[in-house]
Amino acid sequence: MFFMWRSHLAKSLHQHRNQPEARFLQLATIGLDQRPRNRTVVFRGFLENSDRYRDCLKIVTDRRSQKTEQINANPWAEVNWYFTKTRSQFRILGKLILIDHEYPDLELQKARSDAWSSLSEPARVQFAWAHPREPRVSFPEVAPSTPEQPLESFCLLLLEPTEVDRLELRGTPQNRWLHLRDEQGNWTDREVNP
Ligand SMILES: Cc1cc2nc3c(=O)[nH]c(=O)nc-3n(C[C@H](O)[C@H](O)[C@H](O)COP(=O)(O)O)c2cc1C
User: Fold this and answer.
1) Which atom belonging to ligand 1 lies closest to the Cα atom of 59?
2) Separation of 24 CA from ligand 1 center, angstroms?
3) Is residue 50 domain-resident?
4) Is ligand 1 within 6 A of the CB of residue 50?
5) What is the domain count for the chain?
6) Looking at the whole model, is its pTM more than 0.85?
7) Which atom of ligand 1 is nearest to the CA of 37?
8) Tell me: the pLDDT tens digits for 87-141?
9) Long-range contacts (CB closer than 8 Å, 24 or more residues apart) made by 141-145
C-alpha cells in the first residue's frame, strides 16, 4: 500500500512508461556560496525492500561532481518533476543521502552495488571518464568495467522526502495537495488552493 503521493506518482510513471525522458527530473541543491544549483538527473526507482528507506528516490551520480560537496555541506534538496500526460507537477523536498564507496551502512552499500549492476555498460563507463568540470582533455580508452564491482567514483544518491507539493493542472481551478511527513514517517495529505 502506497501513500497518496506515491500512488499518484506511480500512476504518472505508468502512463509515461514508453517515454524514457519522463524519468528525467530536476534536482536543486544549495551551493557553497548559498546560491541555488540545479541539474537534470535520472530517476532510478525507489529503494524498495527497505523499511527505513522505502520512500527514498534513487539517483546515481559521480562522487567527483560538484553536488557532492554541496550535499556534504547541506543535504537539503528539492526535486521538480513534470509529467505531460497527467499534467501533474511533483515538487519533492527532502534530505539527500550520498552513498559513496566508504559509506558504512551495509544495507545501503548493497543498494549501491545493485544500482551499479543495473547500469548499462555505456552508463558505467562515464564513471571512468576524466574529472568532471576540469579543463577538457582527450579521453584515453578505458577498460570495460565489471557489473560486480562499482568504480570508486560511483555513488548512489537517495532523496528522502519530507514534503511533496503536487499540482494537477487538469481542472478549473487546478488541484493542489501538500503531503507532509512527520517524525515517525507517517504522511498526512492536505488539499490546498492552487
Ligand atoms: C538527460 C540528462 C540526464 C542526466 N542524468 C544524470 C544523472 O542521473 N546523474 C548525474 O549525476 N548527472 C546526470 N546528468 C548530468 C547533470 O545534469 C549534471 O551536468 C552533472 O551531474 C554535474 O552536476 P553538478 O556539477 O552540479 O554536480 C544528466 C544530464 C542530462 C541532460
Assistant:
1) 8
2) 10
3) yes
4) no
5) 1
6) yes
7) 26
8) 999 999 999 999 999 999 999 999 999 999 999 999 999 999 999 999 999 877 7
9) 145/121
